[in-house]
């Protein structure tokens, strides 16, 4: 739903329900590829991480990476999957230059994870399955403006061929673009927390295909379109909203929705049909004879269960309870990888010199902006420095306004706030004697204003008091403790 | 050209050949239909056995969990690999225009 829903749209939305199911491909953060010892690295020079296995050279044999099995079990635990005693790989046969073997090794009817779920804002979304497969190479299409069918030729880099993927297939349990977006957010946060992927959509380590259909409330599912090429959470939501409108318009014109694959065009803001196929897909799946079944041992299962970290859903509840923050703040903390951990370490380092809420305020505003601007992970920042800043504000050494500048410099230069405060001579004057003397001077030099304050109505009083407060602050070069200064000024004005 | 009751039809043979990107002549399609039919006849004799309770076997040896440690090893030399390719550009394999839809 867009923010600007007009009345016509609203009445239409009343009758039609969107149904969304998502297929999420996530690259596993192993050191090596799925079936060979080539490094699993993003951004290497083309074709430098290749070997006979991932090039599909004759006579080469795949051997499964043991960490992949462990990662799959972690995914199994995190999303409440059933992990069967045995799962196997199949060959999916097709001709396409991104796989030099002319088949993709994948799991088919006996995947490693079955029937799980994920709770998203109180709604349970079923996850049909999660299976292992190898990623494909990367093609660049040349000529014809980079479009595949107009290209004169293509260039292929096999560094990504054989990188381990998990495909996580949800049930059609989502009913809006917002819910779909939240599902992916929660899924990402969970995958990140269990350490199986870096889930970077911008680097393609997490990719989403969306199955979208519409129906009248209470009806059977409608015909779905599968949307590919959705490269960000924002495009996901836009693509779903676009499809929702497109399908409803078709149905209301009496047309039928065609079951097809469509591609999201980010610039044009619409989905377009893929090239229609002459014949239905026929991948001739058969069990991969070069790989034996995966049968996770009881020891491995127990080890994985014992080493599971706290999951984001539980962490959210705990932070809300322990820190007294609200759901929104917890959501912001958890939606940026590493930010919640940063805040948790800072809270521990506070040592009584401030509240967790103070830390969260800084973390979800100034620190988050800095992280977004620089693209740095919060894991690279020093939470102890934020804790020191909170203490400096808490004990009145600097004001909140000064603290903003100090924090900015602290983050940028990796410097301790205390050092910045002393270098810049920022320490707030909280000495009552010094502040009182400054106020006395200001009142003596501005006798006119004091007189106007005394004889004026409320409006004048407010204005004159503001002026006098400003003069006091000026006299103190902005370093007077504002609370204390306010009190001293009021006391003296009242005294006459 | 399939005989009545044959286990594979000529149409099936040409379909599978197309999926495997094999160009068969008419004669080849005919003879393969016959030969594959014989092979399938033999396989059918196995189907006649009672295999209820016998799990499908993809492997002759009852092995599971053949795994390797997640430790990298040196890769092939790129220049050497690319020197084997019919065409290369910019450190990548150059392939002809792709006509099909991405799978």
Architecture overview:
The complex is a heterodimer of chains A (496) and B (103). Chain A is an alpha+beta fold. Chain A has 3 domains: 298 residues, no CATH class; 115 residues, no CATH class; 64 residues, Arc Repressor Mutant, subunit A (Orthogonal Bundle), CATH 1.10.10. Chain A contains 16 helices and 14 strands. In chain A, the strands form 3 sheets. An 8-stranded mixed β-sheet of chain A has the order 5-6-9-1-10-11-12-13. Chain A has a 3-stranded antiparallel β-sheet with strand order 4-3-14, with no helix packed on it. In chain A, strand 10 and strand 11 form a beta hairpin. In chain A, helix 13 packs across helix 15 and helix 15 packs across helix 16. The N terminus of chain A is likely disordered. The longest helix of chain B is centred in the middle third of the chain and has 22 residues. Chain B has a domain of 38 residues: Orthogonal Bundle (Histone, subunit A). Chain B is built from 3 helices and 3 strands; from the N terminus they run ααβαββ. The model of chain B has no long low-confidence stretch (mean pLDDT 86). In chain B, 36% of the residues lie in helices and 9% in strands. Chain B is mainly alpha-helical and 103 residues long. A two-stranded antiparallel ribbon of chain B has the order 2-3. The radius of gyration of chain B is 22 Å and the shape is flat. The chains are: A alpha+beta (496), B mainly alpha (103).
Please work out how many helical segments of chain A DSSP would assign. Answer: 16
Task: Kindly name the structural category of chain B.
Answer: mainly alpha
The number of helical runs of chain B is 3
| Basic shape of chain A | elongated
Order of helices and strands of chain A: HEEHEEEEEEEHEEHEEEHHHHHHHHHHHH
How many angstroms separate the termini of chain A?
61 Å
Biggest chain pair contact, residues each?
A-B, 63 and 37 residues
Q: Mind summarizing the main beta sheet of chain B?
A: 2 strands, antiparallel
> Under the CATH scheme, which architecture of the domain at 10-47 in chain B would be assigned?
Orthogonal Bundle
Look at the structure and give the CATH class of the domain at 10-47 in chain B: Mainly Alpha
Main sheet record of chain A: 8 strands, mixed
Q: Considering DSSP H and I runs of 4 or more, what fraction of the residues of chain A is helical?
A: 40-55%
């Amino acid at each position: 739903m867009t923010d600007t829903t007009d009345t016509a749209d609203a009445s239409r939305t009343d009758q039609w329900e969107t149904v969304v199911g998502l297929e999420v491909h996530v690259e596993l953060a192993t050191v090596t590829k799925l079936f060979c010892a080539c490094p699993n690295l993003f951004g290497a020079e083309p074709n430098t991480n290749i070997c006979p296995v991932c090039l599909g050279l004759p006579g080469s044999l795949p051997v499964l990476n043991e960490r992949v099995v462990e990662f799959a079990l972690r995914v199994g635990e995190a999303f409440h999957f059933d992990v069967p005693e045995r799962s196997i790989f199949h060959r999916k046969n097709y001709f396409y230059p991104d796989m030099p073997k002319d088949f993709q090794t994948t799991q088919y009817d006996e995947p490693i994870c079955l029937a799980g779920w994920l709770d998203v804002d109180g709604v349970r979304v079923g996850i049909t399955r999660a299976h292992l497969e190898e990623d494909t190479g990367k093609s660049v299409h040349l000529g014809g403006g980079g479009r595949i069918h107009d290209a004169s030729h293509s260039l292929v880099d096999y560094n990504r061929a054989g990188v381990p993927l998990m495909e996580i297939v949800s049930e059609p349990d989502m009913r809006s673009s917002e819910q779909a977006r939240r599902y992916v957010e929660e899924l990402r946060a969970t995958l990140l927390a269990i350490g199986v992927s870096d889930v970077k959509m911008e680097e393609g380590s997490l990719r989403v295909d969306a199955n979208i259909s519409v129906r009248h409330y209470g009806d059977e599912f409608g015909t779905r379109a599968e949307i590919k090429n959705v490269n960000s959470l924002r495009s996901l939501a836009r693509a779903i909203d676009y499809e929702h409108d497109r399908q409803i318009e078709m149905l209301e014109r009496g047309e039928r929705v065609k079951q097809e694959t469509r591609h999201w065009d980010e610039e044009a803001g619409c989905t377009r049909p893929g090239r229609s196929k002459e014949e239905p897909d026929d991948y001739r799946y058969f069990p991969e004879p070069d790989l034996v079944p995966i049968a996770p041992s009881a020891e491995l299962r127990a080890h994985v269960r014992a080493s599971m970290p706290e999951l984001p859903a539980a962490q959210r509840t705990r932070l809300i309870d322990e820190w007294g923050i609200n759901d929104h703040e917890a959501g912001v903390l958890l939606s940026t990888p590493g930010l919640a951990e940063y805040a948790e370490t800072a809270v521990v380092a506070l040592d009584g010199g401030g509240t967790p809420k103070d830390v969260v305020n800084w973390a979800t505003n100034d620190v988050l902006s800095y992280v977004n601007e620089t693209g740095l992970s919060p894991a690279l920042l020093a939470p102890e420095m934020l804790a020191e800043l909170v203490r400096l504000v808490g004990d009145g050494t600097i004001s909140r306004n000064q603290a903003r500048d100090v924090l900015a410099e602290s983050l940028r230069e990796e410097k301790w706030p205390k050092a910045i405060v002393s270098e810049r001579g920022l320490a707030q004057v909280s000495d009552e004697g010094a502040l009182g003397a400054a106020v006395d001077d200001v009142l003596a030099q501005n006798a006119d204003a004091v007189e106007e304050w005394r004889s004026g109505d409320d409006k004048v009083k407010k204005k004159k008091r503001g002026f006098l407060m400003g003069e006091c602050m000026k006299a103190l070069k902005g370093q007077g403790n504002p609370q204390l200064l306010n009190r001293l000024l009021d006391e003296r004005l009242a005294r006459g | 050209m399939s005989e009545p009751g044959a286990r594979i039809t000529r149409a099936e043979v040409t379909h599978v050949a197309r999926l495997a990107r094999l160009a068969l002549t008419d004669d080849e399609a005919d003879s393969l239909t016959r030969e594959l039919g014989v092979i399938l006849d033999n396989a059918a004799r196995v189907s006649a056995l009672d295999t209820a309770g016998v799990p499908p076997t993809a492997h002759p040896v009852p092995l599971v969990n053949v795994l390797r440690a997640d430790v990298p090893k040196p890769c092939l030399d790129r220049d050497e690999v690319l020197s084997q390719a019919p065409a290369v550009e910019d450190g990548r394999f150059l392939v002809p225009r792709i006509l099909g839809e991405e799978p």
